[in-house]
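Support reply, case 0932

Customer input (verbatim):
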Amino acid sequence: MDGRCFALRWPAAINSHLRYFANTGGRLPRETLQALRRAVPSAYPFLMYGLTEAFRSTYLPPQEVDCRPDSIGKAIPNCEILVLRPDGTPCDPDEAGELVQRGALVAQGYWNDSERTAERFRPLPGRTPELVVPELAVFSGDTVRKDAEGFFYFVGRVDEMIKSSGYRISPSEVEEVLYATGIVGECAAFGVPHPVLGEVVMAVVSARPGDDPPDPGAVQDACRRRLPAYMVPAQIALHPGPLPRNPNGKIDRKAVSARYRELSIEGPAA
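Our regenerated output:
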């Protein structure tokens, strides 16, 4: 779901009969959540997070939304969600690691793709080796953390983290702030090579429905007021119309990056 849905004229009566709404894929950006709650204040939000390989993973019940709106909740029934280090050991509270799901909802693998299946579907380290058919868990490639109360928080994709000046930056965190500025319709953030810093953040943005294209300088200034210096996009590119999407309907960050990353950035980051 993105900003385009709020350009539609929602019927005024929707607030009298819509009881629930939910997202069913990646984490719902806070700006989108707030816009939905303004549009239908009487509806209960169920924030959910799921994997293509396991359908659903976590959910946050409505009573928790106000105190932890950035959380993706806890594991749904009949599954176990783990946060693991690269060596397979469990992470400590608030330590970022890979989200791994086990249980009845995990698929058996990718159809006719043994190479990708072996990459994502693996036995959990330390589990009983005597099983005739070892249980396979899905290693999501998503970086998350779990707080001391057991609530999970999405950090970013392992293979999309931006490494700049020794910092690891989640593109999702930058995109969240870009949406919060209220001056972009859609956005995608990613890392581009930099001769000194390793990488810097680049953002591709589109206009809000019905608005003129945003001024890149104004977008950058808005980010400076909300982000530490190392996370501020060093370059803002304007994209005409909606951003490309993958078959799941999500903004295709890799496709956007492939199109725009050749724009070189020289010298220190802004």
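We compared this against your earlier run and they match. Two observations from our side: The chain has a mean pLDDT of 86. The first strand starts at residue 20 and ends at 23. Please reopen the case if you see a mismatch on your end.
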